[in-house]
Amino acid sequence: MSEGYFFVEVEIADSVAYEAYRTPAPDIISGHGGRILVRGGDPQPFDGVMPHHRRAIVEFDSREAVKTFYDSDAYHAVLPIRLRRCRPHRAEANVKTAKPTRKIRR
Q1: Start-to-end Cα distance in the chain
Q2: CATH topology for the 4-44+51-95 domain
Q3: 37-55, pLDDT tens digit by residue?
């Protein structure tokens, strides 16, 4: 079974009110077996310009586990805070696929 990933990218409109989402989210995630891989908002781009958004990538044991987390009562208790206080850009579940990486030569 492949892992499932929950990826969120948001532009925070009200950082003080957003704390009511940000603070309990890690416990809700871990309570559903999720592992936060990336959480924060200070990316350093290698190429081009990236907008200043907050990003989170969470790994779960399966895509079904992502859906169970997302549909849970605990997450739906705080989700309206994120939706009201942020402009979401993405929220999706992806299945991990392993591909070899290689260097790009210029």
Answers
A1: 37
A2: Alpha-Beta Plaits (3.30.70)
A3: 988 867 777 887 766 778 8
